[in-house]
Write a structure and sequence with these properties.
Elements: H1 2-11, H2 24-29, E1 51-58, E2 62-63, H3 73-88, E3 97-101, H4 112-119, E4 128-131, H5 137-150, E5 156-163, H6 174-185, H7 189-197, H8 220-230, H9 235-254, E6 264-265, E7 271-272, H10 283-287, E8 309-319, H11 320-325, E9 332-341, H12 351-363, E10 372-375, H13 380-390, H14 393-399, H15 420-423, H16 430-445, E11 449-456, E12 460-468
Parallel strand pairs: 3-4, 3-5, 10-11
Antiparallel strand pairs: 1-8, 1-9, 2-8, 5-8, 6-7, 9-12, 11-12
Helix pairs in contact: 3-4, 6-7, 8-13
């Protein structure tokens, strides 16, 4: 399938990335454009409960191995939960449920939602559970919150996510684990000595966690490289998009637009109040980096990939009725969402392409109705491949079973405050950042509808529609 996809796309009439306007000067100027306020009908449906985002926060996202290095995941999650409570002044005992997303779990706090909630001072009577769905784990946490409220089970749910890549679990080898478990069960000194004598040097080799697909044994970076090649995305295209992300993120940071960040006091260190991975460079510097995965001819580098990140996020999701009764002014409506899944070998990172038309059709909207787009930037090549696929009638007809393309989001509405390439990507926490950013951009830009989309390991994806709350 990979070769068929590559050969067919090379001859299909879809626009090339450069023809789509991915030149640096175009990308940079898009930050100056704002969507005009439009008179559109609401997506509210008769008899369907309105569910709202009251507010959302996150800790600063930091490169792994930096200031957060000596903490644990639940420390960051606790900080995000406390920050949400401080910002909203929401009564702890009024929270009906807590859902948190994470990917690489700390074994000591396997249900990090519960441990973080207890540490943040929530009632021990408040249930909490943890979900995992790779890079869309906090998306799943939010939509689980929506489901609980829609079903009448809850009125107020806190959802969020956390990832801590500075200290990931490293296991003993399987043979060593089996020996140690047997040693624990041994009933005599002789049996213990015999087991200890069976240990060989090779048994001591650790098992490092791999950011790879279990079903294909391929790392996501390799998949991104192959996807970029299949869609004809050049190294130059990817570096330009990465530079765009960092440039826009730095502009948003300098202008104080990243208001979802709450300060976090690291014990024994300074208070952290901003992301530390936003670093605009130059095309000359980016071009000097060597391929990170497929060597020597790959196009994916450390600079045009999202980096390993520590961070946590949290959002307060409520029924509109309950929020207004308690005196809160919501930021946005959480309207509709879809999850998709496809071949994890050749279409691992194409979740946005499949999810976007589905969520639009469910709500009776078109691409032109959307004022704000926030897509997860796993790799620059992944984003550009998705935008190219979305502009291809051939891909829509041959792979999606559609008559025509859905179209690609216009860059003047796309990730205008930076994205995961620059801000960072704590796997379990990014979804909440995307949704909160949409809510803030809708208010600032005067738009009505926003769309979040993301890919995830396993060939899965997610899209959600957000509607601005009336000012």
């Amino acid at each position: 399938m990979a070769s068929m996809l590559m050969n067919s796309l090379r001859t299909c009439p879809a626009a090339s990335p450069r023809a789509l306007g991915f030149a640096t000067r175009t990308l940079s100027s898009s930050a100056l454009l704002q969507a005009q306020a439009k008179s559109k009908k609401s997506l509210a449906k008769p008899g369907v409960k309105n569910i709202v985002l009251v507010d959302g926060v996150r800790t600063p996202f930091l490169q792994s191995g930096t200031t957060y290095a000596d903490l644990m995941p639940h420390d960051l999650a606790r900080g995000a939960l406390q920050g949400l409570l401080n910002r909203t002044a929401f009564p702890k005992d009024a929270v009906d449920y807590i859902v948190y997303g994470t990917v690489i779990q700390e074994v000591k706090t396997s249900n990090v939602a519960r441990e973080a909630a207890l540490g943040a001072g929530f009632s021990d009577k408040t249930p909490a559970h943890t979900v995992t769905m790779a890079c869309i784990s906090s998306n799943q946490a939010m939509t689980t919150a929506v489901g609980l409220i829609a079903a009448g089970q809850c009125d107020a749910v806190v959802a969020g996510g956390v990832e801590f890549m500075s200290d990931v679990p490293i296991r003993h080898s399987r043979k060593m684990r089996k020996t140690m478990l047997s040693l624990n069960k041994a009933k005599s000194l002789g049996a213990r000595l015999s087991l200890l004598g069976s240990i060989r040097l090779a048994h001591l080799a650790p098992e490092l966690p791999a950011v790879a697909e279990f079903s294909t044994a391929e790392t996501m970076g390799h998949s991104a490289d192959r996807l970029a090649a299949a869609f004809g995305i050049s190294r130059l295209d990817q570096d330009e998009f990465a530079l765009r992300s960092h440039t826009l993120a730095k502009k948003a940071q300098d202008e104080g637009l990243l208001t979802d960040i709450i300060s976090f006091k690291v014990p024994g260190k300074d208070i952290v109040s901003k992301d530390n991975g936003i670093r605009p460079s130059s095309m000359e510097q980016l071009s000097k980096l060597k391929p990170a995965f497929i060597k020597p001819h790959g196009t994916v580098t450390a600079a045009n990939s999202s980096y390993l990140t520590d961070g946590a996020s949290a959002v307060l999701v409520m029924s509109e009725e309950k929020a207004l009764a308690m005196g809160y002014k919501p930021k946005a409506y959480l309207r509709d969402f879809v999850y998709v899944s496809q071949d994890p070998k050749d279409q691992l990172l194409l979740g946005p392409t499949y999810a976007t038309p589905k969520v639009l059709e469910r709500s009776g909207l078109t691409l032109s109705d959307i004022d704000v787009f926030e897509f997860h930037e796993a790799f620059a090549g992944q984003i550009l491949a998705n935008l190219t696929a979305m502009e291809s009638d051939w891909f829509a007809q041959n792979y999606m079973g559609r008559k025509a393309k859905v179209g690609a989001p216009p860059l003047e509405k796309f990730n205008l405050w930076g994205g995961s390439l620059s801000i960072g990507h704590p796997f379990g926490a990014t979804g909440c950042r995307l949704v909160t950013t949409v809510a803030h951009r809708l208010k600032k830009e005067g738009g009505q509808y926003g769309l979040v989309a993301a890919c995830a390991a396993g060939g899965q994806g997610h899209a959600m529609l957000i509607e601005a709350y009336p000012q």
